[in-house]
Amino acid sequence: MFEGLFGSPMKSTMVSAQSALAGRSEQPFVLPLRHSVLDAPLDVPEDATGVATIYLGLGCFWGAEKEFWNMPGVITTAVGYQGGYTPHPTYEEVCTGLTGHTEIVKVTYDPSLLSDAQILRAFWESHDPTQGFRQGNDVGTQYRSAVYYTTDSQAQAAAQTLETFQSALVAKGFGAITTEIKPSGAQGAGEFYFAEPYHQQYLFKNPNGYCPVHSTGVACE
After folding, report:
1. Which residues are catalytically annotated?
2. Over the stretch 154-183, which tens digit does the pLDDT of each residue have?
3. Cα 142 to the chain's mean position, in Å?
């Protein structure tokens, strides 16, 4: 169905809402109930007591998810798609560039153990946020850098850590940060849609899987 589109220039141009794929009305698979590494619920509601949730895009979500599930204070992680137009997209659809989504890691954490700033420092340091619609050799709108926040404190931390990291990047010869920062939900990046079961904790299930982390090597301090 999508033959010829995967190498198309459309992958590096943000699709319009009018041109996006239609999608579907419900999730086309059964989501696993528990995290394969942390043995926690995979889908924790944003309004659950004692937790905070943030949605982060930093390139290929296989390697990005592993960065966060290893952080003390993280309760659970999941991967999916957000920031586009197509409801309940499939991975194959996202890869065409015709859904508008970027690959996202949903990070649910205990804010008494892990601060918003700590989460965001790990985010900045784990990829190159200056590359626009790409990370290394991974090219397309699905690889764009993104922070979709759910609280005012996350929004403030995103702005503050961006300013700090931009100064550090400039000092090392990097360009301007292109990260998309929006509220999650209807007034911003739209709904988060879970990726297919085989993508969840992919590098745990496939230890030899290839998904490089494109860190700049610059510290966000």
Report:
1. 60
2. 999 999 999 999 999 999 999 999 999 999
3. 9
